[in-house]
Amino acid sequence: MQSLTNRQKRFLKSKAHHLNPIFQVGKQGVTDEMAKQINFALEARELIKVNVLRNADVDAKEAGELLQQKTGAELIQTIGHIVVLYKPSENEPTIQLP
User: Fold this and answer.
1) Strand-by-strand arrangement of the 82-86 sheet
2) How far is the C-alpha of 5 from the C-alpha of 54, rounded, in Å?
3) Which of 36, 38, 62, 70 could form a disulfide with 58 if both were Cys (CB 3.0 to 4.6 A apart)?
4) To which CATH superfamily is domain 6-86 assigned?
5) Where in the numbering of this chain does the CRM domain appear (predicted)?
């Protein structure tokens, strides 16, 4: 996937602002099973938030980078304990990037 422009990232950040996190990274960190489930969610939603719990072995930045590697998604941002990921749907893309 080609890298997103700053304008596209700003657009996705504004879209993600109102979303609630749908996954949590806990003590076990980023597992392969979690990455698989996040991939399914990205296919359905394209843009998701992941919450990194305080007791996790990794911080939000590390978790975001690991998820980016394991899912092939674009890491849009990390704020506090929240990671925002974007991956266009292969079957039915709904988010139109500027």
Assistant:
1) 23-25, 47-52, 82-86, 74-79
2) 31
3) 62
4) YhbY-like (3.30.110.60)
5) 2-98
